[in-house]
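User: Fold this; tokens only.

Assistant: Input:
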Amino acid sequence: MYVLGLSCYYHDSAACLLEDERVVAAAEEERFSREKHDSSFPDQAVEYCLDEAGITIDDVDYVGFYEKPIEKFDRILETFLTVAPFGFGSFIQGMPLWIRKRLWMRGDIRTRLGYDGEVLFGGHHQSHAASTFFASPFDEAAVLTIDGVGEWNTTTWGVGEDNGVEIREAIDFPHSIGLLYSAFTYYLGFEVNNGEYKVMGLSSYGDPVYEDRIYDELIDVKDDGSFRLNMDYFGYLGKLRMINDDFESLFGHPRREQDTDIEDHHFDIAASVQSVTEDLLLGLAQATYDRTGKENLCMAGGVALNSVANGRILEETPFEDVFIQPAAGDDGTAYGVAADIYYQALDNPRTVPADRRERMAATYLGPAYSAEETRAAIEAEDDVAATAFGSTNELLERTAALLSEGNVVGIYQGRMEWGPRALGNRSILADPRDAEMQDTVNMKIKFREGFRPFAPTVLADHATDYFDAPRESPYMLFVFDVHEDRREEIPAVTHVNGTSRIQTIAREDNAVYYDLIDAFRERTGTPVVLNTSLNRRGEPIVNTPANAIDCFTGTNMDYMCFPDVNTLVADAPEGTEATEGVPESESEGVSVAPNAE
């Protein structure tokens, strides 16, 4: 049985294909369109999923859409009627699209796909809940979802058991932790639905001096973990602006304009909303435990990407374990609705995965490209020189040597990662021992703000030697303290507050990436590398080999490693033959010039 799940028309459009329980393929549309957070119908992602399975749309038994358009329209209409005539302009602006298209979603999906089978709709938060529980290694668990807003819900708790997920209680719009955090994201001059992780990074540089003001004026928190926002300070009910003038007056400063200087009070405001958010999530997690009595917790929704809060929930609540799947945001609901159809709607039995990575194939669910396509992309670029190696091991040894010498190296291999994190197949790597490396990568490679921290990838069997990690973290979704005696060893991946958002890598997940880090460990004694996504500022993570070459030539990266073709790429020295100036491999690599074959 094939079930195709779709998420689109808000942000992070995606498609996911199941063959019975198995996730055949999953990908975000942005990786194909090259438009970050692309919200359009995921035509290219669907095409990829079908190609990966070797089927056509006619072979698909069910198509699922991640939310219920009629209920969402009901929320929009009722919100307008509540505040009317305020916000009439934004209402008129949005209505034609709903009347013409969104209310007829089933027909739109069938037309776009050329599909005449069944199309089913899942609730937004039901899709979130299904996306995390059905991917988890638990046969039963408490489930907590937190985001901006779905149809009406902004926060839900429930229970997953066997092949079912039940939402038992919800907090509804306009009261939302996600929208509270996004309001501060907007106030601090970052883009909503894109810059929230910048606020999280910024928060470590400040003190939560505005925390009491947030509690006194913006949010009322109950003993049971529920909350209500004071809508006198927010603008999103009636217009396309998160906050109003009273919000700005409350904090004594106007909204920061994008790309202007970040001042001390900005750091403190970020620290304050981050502290409040962590406390809110801890309260919700504790209340969920009290209500369900379950030993394990599954989380999803955009707020579940707040890795600092996640680490605290794992360490400070009574739950024995916490699972968050790699695409915790709206992209992951494409899996959620497909899984909910397969298990719950059709009542198919569920096989519990053996470990937390099995159902998600360790997150490598996107497209891979052939050796021929990779070589063609390298050869098509005149400004690079390539060195081919006799084996992958020789390539990795040389790459580890380059990293240990202070070079910044991209790595491109295998299937693309599913979710917002690059986890070794579409990554930029550097030496974490170099205290200057954070600035080097931020300014010369990523072209982004200098306060942004970088994450480490650590060999799973060495993780506890460096981090206060109670368990593995394969998806880079938890922040843990770096051991004090290790902070000087890995300063480039130790945040200003002594923490790191870690990825642990086991060899069974990604043998090539593991072996590269292990080769670096053998040279340096440090089983850790700096890992950031292979992309430039404002661009999605690269997809194709051509994207990777373009990223390399458009930045100041020193080398690109292509294990699929055992090739290392460097800039061709100006005025020389393309193969000249490429460092010799310790095991005699074979130089291959562009267009030489």
